[in-house]
Structure formats: structure tokens, C-alpha cells
Write a structure and sequence with these properties.
- This protein is an alpha+beta fold.
- It is 34% helix and 26% strand.
- It has helices at 6-14, 29-47, 83-104, 112-118, 129-144, 154-160, 171-177, 210-224, 316-329, 331-340, and strands at 23-27, 61-69, 72-80, 125-126, 186-189, 194-197, 229-234, 237-241, 250-255, 263-269, 273-278, 282-286, 289-292, 295-296, 301-302, 306-313, 344-350, 355-357.
- The strands form 5 sheets. An 8-stranded antiparallel β-sheet has the order 2-3-7-8-11-16-17-18, with helices on both faces.
- Helix 3 (83-104) runs antiparallel to helix 8 (210-224), helix 5 (129-144) packs parallel to helix 9 and helix 9 runs antiparallel to helix 10.
Length: 368
């Protein structure tokens, strides 16, 4: 997986070097994440004062912990019949995320995906069932979103280097990279469980879908350890399970893409995942034009049809993968896709700031 390194993000938050006139650089992801998670978990701590998933008269324990994993702050809340089980469940969730990071992080030279990338143009690489699942799911989402999600886009992302470089690549530079971002040159053999990148210089990165998968797997690990309810939050990907006292769902606020610190809408989740892709997370502005980190694989330029896309699904892997793909597709075509998918809903803010809500959410969202 591609995970933004903490140092560049912190550097952009607390000060950048000299920039040209008319230029600004932003990396709001860390601040946004901190605000959303802190607010969300504060609500949970208050709501969990009663018992969750246990019979009346019985007590329950709530444990909330945070760790740096996958290049971001990961927060886990576990609810169980006693503190010992809750602690064990949280530990199990973190351990599962760490295990998956070791398999799929492209920042770890010994990971499976690093070995796949090193072997590009040379030979196929045998991978674990987990890595195969994520890569196959990413290819499936790519097909669903007309190529909007592309796990081979990395060389173009590096050319833009939105956070540190703030440089606009030339058309000739991007065209030279086009053969290296061809998803058709990613060969997956499910029977042999191998992945082969056809051309030297190619690389794949599952950061646009992998955190959702990690949240799914962490929840399963927590349940096996005895958790009755809880939340796993990785970056902008949140997975909930169980219920609050009295059968209430988990309240989540969705960030407004143009008003920092303001909530666009609230929604209550139950055994669901939510993920948001937005052009306000990592970007720079030059002469009034915003250049952000979500690239359109067809143009290799920043996608321009949306300001933000929030997807809600039963599984985090689909919420995480679809939000980026739909962001590239745009509001009209993206919403048409959402309406055809079972158990998938979306809130899309288009390039003009108009808000589009899928049919299954219209009676669920609340305005601040």
C-alpha cells in the first residue's frame, strides 16, 4: 500500500519553504483526520456510558486506543463484557492491521507488493491470499468505475509530487509515463496466486483501497477476540460494528470540502463502513488553480469533476475503492453507478459545490 509518510505531511502543516507568488500548499489530511476521529470518538465515549450488546443490568467495558500504523493515526474502540476482553480485542485489531501492512506496504522493502514492483518486467511474484484479494478487488473496482481507480498510477503521482514538489509536469513528461500506468499490463493469475507487472518501471500501490480492507479485517479480528461492538478508523476510512445503547447507530460527520472544520452532513452507521475522497486533503494552489493528489488515469491530470465523494458500504474495501473511482468519474455517472450497486450509498459534492445524495441516504442524513 502507499501510505503518506508522516514527515512530509507534518512539515506542510506547520510550515513550508518559500513559494512563488500566488501559490499555496496544503495537506489537511492529518488535521481533518484528527478532528473527525476526536469528535467521533468523543461521541462514542459518551454514548458508550451504558452497556452495548449486553443484557440489562450487566456492565460493559469500553477501550479506546490509538497507534501510528500505515503512515497515519489508527484509532480503535472496542466494547466487551469486561476490560480485559476489550483490551485484547483492540490489541487484536492493531495486530491485524500491522500484519497486513507488512504484506502490502510499498514503504516496506520486504513486503509482497514491494517484491512485485521490484520484479516488474522480470517475473511473476507469488503472493498471499490477502494481497491477491485486495489486488483483484482493485481491478474489479477499476472496471466498475471505467478506470477511475488505477493501482498502477504511482509513477504519475510521483511526477506531480503534490506535497513536496508542487511542480506541474509537462504534457510530454506525462505522456512518457503513460505506458507505466497501464492497468492492462498488470497480470493476475488467481490459480497460481501470482502478480506480474509487464513493463520494467511499473509499480502497483493499493493505498486507494487497502485501508478499507484493513479496517474490515481488523473488525473480524476484534470480533474473534470477543468484542461486542466498536469502531476501527484508519485515515478517512471508518468501519463500525454492533450498536450503541438502546439500539442506536454510530453517528459520523462528513467534512465540508470547502469550509475547513465544518460538517457537511451527519449520518448514523450500523455495521457499515464509510470512506471519503476529496480534493482538499493534499493539494497546492497556483495562480488560483487547485492541483490535488487524485489523478484521472486517462489524462494523468488532477480529476476535476468533484470536490468530494463519500461512499457508505457494508465492507470497507468497497467504500474505500469506490470513493476514488467515483471522484474521477464525476457526480452524474458516479451516482448512476451507485444506484445500481446493492448496499452502497454515496454523497457527492460536484465541481460546482452542488450536493448529490443517493436514494438510500435521503432519509438518513442530517444537516448540521
Amino acid at each position: 500500500m502507499y501510505y503518506a509518510q508522516p514527515c512530509p505531511i507534518i512539515r506542510c502543516l506547520f510550515g513550508v519553504g518559500e513559494m512563488g507568488r500566488g501559490e499555496r500548499v496544503h495537506s489537511n489530511l492529518f488535521n481533518q483526520l484528527f478532528r473527525i476521529q476526536t469528535c467521533f470518538l468523543a461521541l462514542l465515549c459518551s454514548a458508550f456510558a451504558g452497556c452495548v450488546g449486553v443484557s440489562p443490568g450487566q456492565e460493559s467495558a469500553v477501550v479506546t486506543r490509538a497507534q501510528m500504523q500505515m503512515g497515519t493515526v489508527v484509532k480503535i474502540t472496542a466494547v466487551a463484557r469486561n476490560e480485559s476482553i476489550a483490551q485484547a480485542a483492540a490489541t487484536a485489531g492493531f495486530a491485524e492491521i500491522h500484519r497486513l501492512e507488512e504484506l502490502m506496504s510499498t514503504w516496506i522493502p520486504t513486503s509482497e507488493l514491494s517484491r512485485v514492483n521490484i520484479s516488474a518486467g522480470v517475473m511473476p511474484v507469488h503472493v498471499s491470499p490477502e494481497t491477491m484479494t485486495v489486488v483483484q478487488s482493485a481491478i474489479q473496482v477499476a472496471e466498475m468505475t471505467e478506470g477511475g481507480l488505477n493501482i498502477a498510477i504511482g509513477p504519475a503521482v510521483d511526477a506531480w509530487n503534490v506535497i513536496e514538489g508542487q511542480r506541474i509536469p509537462t504534457e510530454s513528461e506525462l505522456e512518457a509515463l503513460r505506458p507505466l500506468v497501464d492497468l492492462q499490463a498488470v497480470h493476475v493469475d488467481a490459480r497460481k496466486r501470482t502478480i506480474f507487472l509487464e513493463k520494467a518501471g511499473m509499480r502497483i500501490d493499493v493505498g486507494g483501497i487497502g485501508k478499507g480492507y484493513a479496517a474490515d479485517q481488523a473488525v473480524m479480528a476484534m470480533k474473534r477476540a470477543g468484542a461486542l461492538a466498536g469502531v476501527v478508523a484508519l485515515s478517512g476510512d471508518i468501519k463500525t460494528f454492533g450498536q450503541l445503547p438502546g439500539g442506536k447507530k454510530f453517528p459520523v460527520g462528513i467534512q465540508h470540502p470547502r469550509k475547513e472544520g465544518e460538517v457537511l452532513a451527519f449520518i448514523d452507521l450500523e455495521d457499515e463502513a464509510i470512506s471519503t475522497a476529496g480534493d482538499y486533503e493534499r493539494f497546492f494552489e497556483r495562480d488560483g488553480v487547485r492541483y490535488h493528489h487524485i489523478l484521472d488515469p486517462k489524462t494523468l491530470q488532477p480529476a476535476r469533476r468533484c470536490q468530494s465523494v463519500t461512499v457508505i458500504a457494508r465492507e470497507g474495501i468497497w467504500a474505500d475503492g469506490l470513493d476514488t473511482g467515483i471522484f474521477v468519474m464525476g457526480a452524474e455517472v458516479g451516482m448512476q453507478l451507485v444506484e445500481t450497486l446493492p448496499d452502497v450509498e454515496a454523497i457527492i459534492v460536484d465541481h460546482e459545490g452542488s450536493v448529490h445524495v443517493s436514494s438510500g441516504l435521503r432519509n438518513r442524513i442530517r444537516k448540521p
